[in-house]
Amino acid sequence: MGEIVRLGLLDSGADFSIKYLQEIHLFGQTFHLTTTHVGLAIISIVLIVLAIMVNRKIAKSKPEDTPGMLVNIFELAVGMLDNMVQGTMGKSARKFRNYIATVFIFALLCNISSLVGLRPPTADYGITFAMGIITFFIIHYNGIKANGIGHFSALCKPILLTPINIIGEIAVPLSLSLRLFGNVLSGTVMMGLIYGLLAPPVTTGIPAVLHVYFDIFSGCIQAYVFCMLSMVYISDKIGTD
């Protein structure tokens, strides 16, 4: 997760740490506002504003109207995500496409947020672990709903591998969260080192090319992998047709 340091502590060189921005005293407790909180707030506001704008445009549009660029972009994105979920989960896709689409868009925006000067929230393990835990509960809730007691008895088949099966289930949120966190953090560290080593005139050229890989390409891949693994784990518990 990187060492949390106070803002202004690193005056020069590589800078890729989570930073304290402000101490907040509330109800006798001290809370720390960090770059992760700021990034999450900005990304959440962007998602909410875009959702409201698209919803209003669609609600006001008529069948004979030509869709605008924003609506076309979102229709294309929704269609691609629907196809991805449908191709993996079959008839169960309808129940999970909203969750998978939300996670994909959120993770993608978090992963590429460094393009606008933010520290990616997904480079903080607290964020990716929360995403992994949410998916973990969705997996087992739907497994119990679909199979009842058989959801637990399946862990004992064969009986000698019961401990390994249990460990494998517990490892799911750790695997999901660490994979996303590790890849995003590695890109953040690499870009921090590059910016710390290069002189200012050069930082306008070489890093821009590297951002294409570490932020855009890798960010898209990691968001896709997280969602794909989530769908595979859920499908494994409920079955697909």
Question: What would you say this structure looks like, in words?
Answer:
- The protein has 7 helices and 3 strands, in the order βββααααααα.
- A hairpin with a 2-residue loop joins β2 and β3 (29-34).
- The protein has one domain (5-116, 124-238).
- Strands 1-2-3 form a 3-stranded mixed beta sheet.
- The chain has 241 residues and is mainly alpha-helical.
- α3 runs antiparallel to α7 (206-238).
Strand content is: 5-15%
Assign a percent range to the helix content: 55-70%
Number of helices: 7
Report the average pLDDT across residues. Answer: 85
What sequence of helices (H) and strands (E) makes up the elements? EEEHHHHHHH
Structural class: mainly alpha
- Domains, number: 1
Largest sheet: 3 strands, mixed
Q: If strands are numbered along the chain, what order do they take across the biggest sheet?
A: 1-2-3
Quaternary state reads: single chain
